[in-house]
Write a structure and sequence with these properties.
The chain has 526 residues and is an alpha+beta fold. It is 38% helix and 15% strand. It has helices at 8-19, 24-31, 35-47, 61-71, 89-97, 102-112, 120-134, 197-211, 242-251, 267-279, 291-306, 318-326, 420-430, 432-442, 451-462, 466-478, 484-492, and strands at residues 152-165, 170-181, 187-192, 217-219, 227-229, 239-240, 254-255, 342-347, 353-356, 359-362, 371-376, 380-385, 388-394, 401-402. The strands form four sheets. The chain has a five-stranded mixed beta sheet, sandwiched between helices. Strands 8-11-12-13 form a four-stranded antiparallel beta sheet, with no helix packed on it. A three-stranded mixed beta sheet has the order 9-10-14, with no helix packed on it. A hairpin with a 5-residue loop joins strand 2 and strand 3. The protein is elongated and about 150 Å long. The model is unreliable at 1-5, 229-237 and 503-526 (pLDDT under 50).
Length: 526
């Protein structure tokens, strides 16, 4: 046994037995120590002048420890503690103190130190010994947090295996949403199929209804439904999800996210999740209980088992302690019901629409390609750019497209209408001659779609005064002019004001031309 690890009581007894004149053999037998070890300690104590004297006046522990530490030769470490990485110790210690783990240190040594042939296990052992040599630092001390009634609730998700979803007939992954009150340890839990922000918010609402009150501070993990960017130090600021912020404002609570990789800072809910797994989930086989049956059984178990058990720390039943001391200290539920508000990130596509929850909503066309924030309620969709509202729509079902005509470029918005019937209706609004012209164009070809020609003609004539549009349509029909180029020529040259010529009846007239072409000469016919 090394001198620095020897029991000071045994050293004090060694001095007493020596002063009583007992032999080295007797002392070794009485103390259960080897004679060579006895000789080593006697030599160290003799150098310090502590070995001889009155057997009734023994030296104090600190004097014995100082003498042994100063005078006893250090015992060589056993072979298994002699690291093969001794010559790399400075590098290992430097990298360890900079925050690198054993695997990272091992990889660095492989790349930068010639002759390194160690293993990750060897690096782990050396790192552990260096850490032990440093001793305990203040950060290693766990500080028990005192929680006053109504102040804090901790929330978390815990994986709960797969269960049958009666709605789909398929087995799906499930999670436990758990909220535990810090003072009474009263707990709400529910089985869910996902960890989306909508589920996260909905479960908070369910928990507040269960407690019939609201904690003043909620401590979540750094999951994306709550925290977009975690704070890695006291000088950093966590960025909260906008949906979670709106929930907090409605109910009046504050959010205090746990630091990354620090589950011990929400230990109450961590232990609550473990308790539910060991007790409830372990006794409800997913082969026998589908998701809905599990939810119903969990609600009963929370009331009749978890809430009434004697908690090991508080010594009280959580539900009883909650009702007696915590409920009155919590925030009351708001008078108005919470409407779930969701925020989504989106980008304005080339069709100047954003896609949200499967539906499409228009945005003014100059914002094409820009990133926007979308606020969703049950009834409305509001689109923000740099915190300014750029569009508001009624919420649409999946697959629907909601378009404001003013959001589209002028003269191009009409092109989105792909129905001939739509353009026939618009032509009729201008006048019967325009409608007749469009009917003629539609009847030109029973195979080739006339849509593009119809769009161009109607858009051109809609821009004219009604009387002129009608005169132009009459002249175009008179000469069989069925394209926008010819109709634009009539308007440009004011031909709608000229008297119409005789209707061409001879064969050889070309539809759509402004002027008739003479029929072919009889001499050229076969």
């Amino acid at each position: 046994m090394g001198a620095h690890r020897t029991d000071m009581h045994r050293l004090q007894e060694l001095v007493r037995l020596h002063r009583l004149g007992r032999s080295r053999r007797d002392i070794a037998r009485l103390l259960g120590m080897g004679r060579d070890t006895i000789a080593t300690y006697r030599g160290a104590l003799e150098k310090a002048g502590l070995l001889d004297g009155d057997a009734a006046q023994l030296p104090p522990f600190d004097a014995l420890k100082e003498a042994v530490t100063a005078n006893a030769p250090p015992a060589p470490p056993p072979p298994q503690q002699r690291s093969s990485l001794e010559r790399f110790r400075p590098d290992v210690d430097r990298l360890r103190k900079s925050g690198a783990g054993p695997t990272a240190i091992h990889d660095w040594l492989r790349l930068h130190q010639e002759g390194y042939a160690g293993s990750v296990s060897a690096v782990k052992r050396l790192v552990a010994r260096l850490a032990r040599a440093d001793g305990v630092c203040p950060e290693d001390v766990a500080i028990a947090v005192e929680t006053v009634p109504g102040e804090v609730a901790q929330v978390d998700f815990g994986y709960a295996g797969t269960r049958l979803d009666p709605a789909t007939g398929e087995r799906r992954k499930t999670w436990l949403f758990v909220m535990t009150l810090g003072f009474s340890r009263h707990t709400f839990a529910e089985l869910v199929f996902d960890q989306t922000v909508e589920t996260w918010v909905r479960m908070h609402v369910r928990a507040f209804e269960y407690f019939e009150s609201v904690p003043r501070v909620i401590v979540p993990d750094n999951l994306k439904a709550a925290v977009i960017r975690a704070a890695f130090g006291a000088s950093d600021t966590a960025v909260l999800h906008r949906t979670y912020r709106e929930l907090a404002r409605h109910y009046g609570f504050q959010i205090d996210p746990t630091p990354p990789r620090s589950p011990e800072k929400k230990g109450k809910v961590e232990r609550g999740v473990g308790y539910i797994r060991r007790n409830f989930l372990a006794t409800h086989d997913p082969k026998e209980f589908d998701a809905e049956q599990t939810r119903a059984a969990l609600a009963r178990w929370l009331r009749e088992v978890a809430g009434t058990r004697r908690h090991a720390v508080t010594g009280r039943a959580p539900a009883e302690l909650f009702a007696e001391r915590e409920l009155a200290a919590m925030l009351p539920l708001p008078r108005t019901a919470y409407e779930v508000v969701l925020w989504r990130d989106a980008r304005v596509q080339r069709d100047v629409h954003v896609q949200v929850e499967g539906a499409f909503y228009s945005v003014p066309w100059p914002h094409m390609g820009q990133a926007v924030k979308v606020r969703l309620t049950r009834a409305t969709v509001t689109i923000f750019l740099a915190d300014a509202v750029v569009a508001t729509h009624a919420r649409a079902s999946r697959g629907r497209r909601v378009t404001v005509e003013a959001h589209l470029p002028e003269h191009r918005g009409d092109l989105r209408h792909r129905s001939i019937e739509h353009w026939l209706v618009r032509a009729a609004r201008v006048g019967p001659a325009v409608r007749g012209l469009v009917d003629d164009i539609v009847g030109d070809d029973d195979v080739l779609s006339p849509l593009r020609r119809v769009q161009a003609v109607v858009a051109l004539l809609e821009a004219q005064p009604r009387e002129r549009a009608e005169r132009t349509a009459d002249r175009a029909r008179h000469f069989g002019c069925h394209d926008a180029r010819g109709i634009r020529g009539i308007l440009t040259r004011d031909l709608d004001l000229a008297a119409p010529v005789a209707t061409p009846t001879e064969p050889g007239w070309i539809t759509g031309a402004r002027f008739a072409r003479r029929p072919a000469s009889p001499t050229t016919e076969s």
